Amino acid sequence: MVYKRIRWFLSRPDVQQNPLKAVWKRLVWRLRWLITSQPFTVPLGDRLKITTPKSGSGASIYYFRFSEPETADFILRFLQTGMVMLDVGAHIGEYTLLAAQKVGSTGQIHAFEPQAHIFPVLSRNVEINEFSNVKLNRSAVCDLVGEMEFEISDEPAMSSLRKHENLDNNAKVVCVPSTSLDEYWSNHATKIDLIKVDVEGAEKFVFQGATKLLSLPVNQAPTWIFEYAPNSYASFEYHSTEILELLKHYGYGVWQYCGAGIIREFKENKPHPEIINLIAAKGTPIGFTVSSIG
């Protein structure tokens, strides 16, 4: 076990680039939380800052500049000035902030985060970066409008709608406001360019509440980037093929981002990490190169 942890640590990109700096940052991160439990403000990407509670995603941002570098890279390559993005499961606002910076004052970001103790952190992060193009919504997103039961995990990024079987006996269950994307967007005439979905296994219900958006023609349909995690889906008692078939039904192709502006068609029957982010689009995402490998 110790040997595996050492190998994992040595494989980290920042460790390989600058071992001393990487070790120092990890020491600072741990010592900082021994001194205070107050949120920590750290750099995010270029010229942004983000306040984070003690969490795995916050640590990754501190170590690597992003919690998921490939996801950040895709969003920054895809978005252009004036575009509109919906951030479903915004958490502390990592992608909300990156997107708001990229689309500029003529663009719009609509962020959704239901956790009462995390939403103020998200709001604060938008405020300290002085963004006026962000609309914040303290709401879960699914296929129902009203209220839903929500599990609060000790790791904030792992909180989710209540699963069919409560797998975490220590989780706190609360009621939160909920909406669907079709309902939310019904009074908006603006085209949505990109929707990011990270809801810890409840992705299917977000798509089921967005059938009008999914039905839009190629030149109006949004592109999606969503977390593909079959084990998390199983905790909600559905199979990963249900999402893939739903997207196919509405004319979407599904892609895996390889980095550096390269995508490849996603094939479920091939080996892949337990959790990855996939791209769903009607047609090839503009500005990306399709790889014939894989």
Word description of this protein:
The chain has 294 residues and is an alpha/beta fold. It has one domain: Vaccinia Virus protein VP39 (Rossmann fold). It is built from 12 helices and 15 strands. A 9-stranded mixed beta sheet has the order 5-4-3-10-11-14-12-13-15. The protein has a 4-stranded mixed beta sheet with strand order 6-9-7-8. Helix 7 links the parallel strand 4 and strand 5. The chain is globular, with a radius of gyration of 19 Å. It starts with a helix and ends with a strand. The mean pLDDT is 89.
Helicity level: 25-40%
- For this structure, the CATH topology is Rossmann fold
Which runs of at least 5 residues are low in confidence (pLDDT < 50)?
A: none
CATH class: Alpha Beta
Radius of gyration, whole Å: 19 Å
Helix run count: 12
CATH architectural grouping? 3-Layer(aba) Sandwich
Number of domains in the coordinates?
A: 1
Order of helices and strands: HHHEEHHEHEHEEEEEHEHHEHHEEEE
Summarize this structure briefly.
The chain is an alpha/beta fold. 34% of the residues lie in helices and 24% in strands.
